[in-house]
Amino acid sequence: MRINKQHIADENKNSSENHKDGFDFLSHQLDKQDKDVNAILRKLADFQVAIPSWALGAGGTRFGRFSYFGEPSTLEQKIDDVGVLHALTKTAGAISLHIPWDIPQDYDAIKERAKINGLVFDAVNSNTFQDQKDAKESYRFGSLSNLNASAREQAIQHNIDVINIGEKLGSKSLTVWLADGANFAGQRNFQSSLIHAENSLKSIYSELPDDWKMFIEYKPYEPNFYSTVIQDWGTSFMLANACGEKAYTLVDLGHHLPNTNIEQIVSTLMLKGKLGGFHFNDSKYGDDDSTVGSVKPYALFLIFNELVYGMENNPQNPDLAWMIDASHNIKDPLEDLLQSLEAILEAYAKALLVDQEELKAAQERNDVTLCQEIMQNAYRTDVRPLLAQARALSGGVINPLKSYRSLRIREGLIKERGMNSVATGL
Ligand code: AFD
Ligand code: MN
Ligand code: MN
């Protein structure tokens, strides 16, 4: 089902009166605080978040997987699903593919499909955490850090193949996430694992096209439960530096131990010009498990405050690649992604409201109370009318979730694909 201009216009007609009241009130308040509402609206409208092809079906755990009805079972259908998100929000203008789950059969047709939906191809993701059918070597004991040179070479070659696929689609970056590590103490020598991982990453990097970037994710645990080769931002940063200027660290919100100060990591990486990408999700215990902003919305705001500061003050850091990296077990994945997009834009808008000059002055006076007040005043502002206004001005709907339901999108997808379609991926 494709959402057209008429659908959007009809939807907005129903919500426009309420929205206008809310927006007029808020913009009046912000005017009085000397905020440039139009500049904020432009920034919100420009902000594009990539949707990963693996977030469009239901995830699962080792205990089981409950498919969601009408899931996309082909790459074409996944592109259409992101097209729905983008038509409603005008914020999801890119798709990030996972290889080999999403290898295009017909490149021209896939590119055309993306174009019709207003999408570009974001970073391509390699997969050396699962054994592939007919593969010569197994990743049971690691991929880029495997002790067996032939397994390492296979994993390196896979990443090069992924770059080649991405080039045909117009992608400009490769994201590497390594599952490598150890399940048991004493299983592996930490130093040799790291040396192998570094050399393998350098081999991949040497094949990276000039105008590409390589993003290196880190993660403290899972699927290995004793140690992970690239366990934290420091290790990723070190490896990115070892590779060269086109290699960057990627921060995934779900890849931190409890209480890690992620905003400080963001700030440090941007100061050093090495934050390349960002994966949004939220978590209580594990990885990718909750909707963005649903558990720790204030932490998300503090992270955005550093991102905004870095975007304004760190020209040494490149434009960031934003992506939602989520995997949900029971919700309608598209509804979940709509909620995530809203939470991201909300945190961004609030961070844009922080008065940086006032904050700096309060910090210089060591007025700790005022510093906290400045942050919390911004955070406590209900910015949702700004988001709705930015969307409506860009041709999206005022209330995406409400419209998703009233346009009966999921019902349409079930009719098209059936109740029991299954998305490829994990
Ligand atoms: C897993 C990893 C990581 C990665 C994604 C795609 O934890 O976040 O980005 O798979 O490979 O979620
Ligand atoms: Mn990730
Ligand atoms: Mn993850």
Automatic annotation (TrEMBL):
User: In its keyword annotation, does this UniProt entry include Hydrolase?
Assistant: no
The organism's superkingdom is given as Bacteria
Identify the stretch(es) annotated as Disordered: 1-20
Q: Which InterPro entries match?
A: L-rhamnose_isomerase (IPR050337), Xyl_isomerase-like_sf (IPR036237)
In this chain, composition skew of type Basic and acidic residues spans: 7-20
Report a single Gene Ontology molecular function: metal ion binding
Keyword annotations from UniProtKB, A to Z: Isomerase, Manganese, Metal-binding
Record carries keyword Nucleotide-binding: no
Cited PANTHER family: L-RHAMNOSE ISOMERASE
Give the protein name, as stated in the record: L-rhamnose isomerase / sugar isomerase
The record lists the organism as Maribacter orientalis
